[in-house]
Amino acid sequence: MRLHDLKDDEVEDVRILVVWGLGGAGKSQLVLNYIREYRRDYAAVFWIEAGSKESIERDYIQIYRFLYGRQMDTGPRMVKVEDTVPMVKRWFHGREGRWLVVLDSADTIDNDRDKSYIDLEYFMPDAPGVHVIITSRSSTAKEMTTLEAVEVADMEPAEAVALFRRGAKLQEEGQEIRTEVAQIVKELGYLALAITLVGSYISVIPRLSSDIRKYLPEYRERRKELLHQRPQQHIHRYGESVLSTWEASFDAITHQHPAASRLLSVLAFMNFDDIFISLFDRKATHITEPLEALSSSAQTWWLYIFPETDGNSYELESAFQTLQTYSLIQWRSDQRSYSMHKLVHAWGQDRLEATRQEQLSSLTLELLADATTDYQSDSSYRLRLVPHLMASFSVYSQTYNSIGETTRDRLTTIKRIGDFLYTTGRWTEAYNTRVFYFQGMRKFLGAEHPDTLGSMNNLAEVIRHQGKYEEAEEMHRQILALKETVLGKEHPHTLGSMNNLASVLDSQGKYKEAEEMHRQALALRKTVLGKEHPDTLGSMNNLAEVMRHQGKYEEAEEIHRQALALRETVLGKGAS
């Protein structure tokens, strides 16, 4: 690979190599081969899944932890991605040796107006001694390097034959077999992904592995059916050879291991990378209990995968193994999880009608919402969960836009996900889910229903955390006015909105107005809730803070002392 050819140059500078070409052509495999051959030339290799903003951020945070030897808090104290990226890039400066950073599957780099657009240059290290390899389906990536880009197109016939023989586990060496193999890889267009899938397929189908001459007639017949049945955009997107091999594998799995085929349909609505089995296995550990003991959402997705049996962790592992045998998923030992090729992942969705996509994305949302309640204190688990949540939510919101229907249960699930993202400090993702939830509640219940106002308040709080203070202030003023009308000025929820508005005023430096509103909220809470109520003590603390911001330290100290004394009386001295 050309990057390694230049490694001994005297010029010390960051070097960027772009590997681009059609999906399924083998770009990532080419980079992996390079790493296997030249790993010793680098102090470390960092692989970043660049297929989505969430996966890049997840991997950057993991690199930050590795380089700095730190764990990271969640919630307000969490180290932000916008901090970790420059810290990781800065770490490389002044370091001896050579380092390799791979940005894999960086495909959404063309249109900066697209929601999925990734500003890849922001994430690229710029220190001397760092080599960067970018793999992409977009030819735009070539503009990011002064080196000659590596285009990965069709495989050489000899390489394609070797790849097929490995996948199919062929032992025979006769001329007839060699001729048949050459014809198969030619018909597959010398495309690495299709060849890998076909090889795996043949290896597990006895009637084909015993006589590979039977494969091409079957393949050609299936391709004819696909050309009649599949929309032309799907044929154009994937190519006839890839679609045909996928459908053949899927049909075989459906007959051999039906649960595995249903599992694949669920995986298509998660993120394609870092599919860790504990997402599912949590529920498998409880299967010794009656199925009715599981939550209703857990029953829904578990019964979808295992409708005939109660299922267990062994059956789940068997389903994963079947998918791996057919090369539809791959095990990644470095992160101890499975991954899917992006095209396989997209095909898993595209093969379904919109209503079926809505059903399965809803099912997956429920599975992932259940997962948010586990390992709440494990920041690593929470970070790994975010790309899956957003992938599933993205598909569900798209199908909602086309179908135009949702349910209260679905909205409740999305609220749970939004709350998880909020407490994890993922403000952008929390904003997207809370906008959806607020709009849904307003449609179901009306603009003035207390639950709608509550969802509006939660949305405003996310906006405040994003630093959009003017927008948050305007929304909080609307909420307060509506709650005063609907609930009354002394209702606890109204007082909560008053407190939130005062806080956003404080964040903008509007201290006098914030102080006045905090004083009103405190006085009303003392009257309505009592002076020892936790919300009242919270108002005392907030008032003291806005006094401190104005330099009124003595008054702030006095209020803090009063609040502390009351907390010790109510909660005890050891309480935090």
TrEMBL record:
- Report the superkingdom from the record: Eukaryota
GO molecular-function terms, A-Z: ADP binding
Q: What residues does the DUF7779 domain cover?
A: 254-355
Q: Where is the signal peptide?
A: none
Q: Which InterPro entries match?
A: DUF7779, NB-ARC, NLR-like, P-loop_NTPase, TPR-like_helical_dom_sf, TPR_rpt
Domain (NB-ARC) ranges: 11-166
Pfam assignment, any one: TPR_12
Q: What is this protein called?
A: NB-ARC domain-containing protein
Native source organism of the sequence = Lepraria neglecta
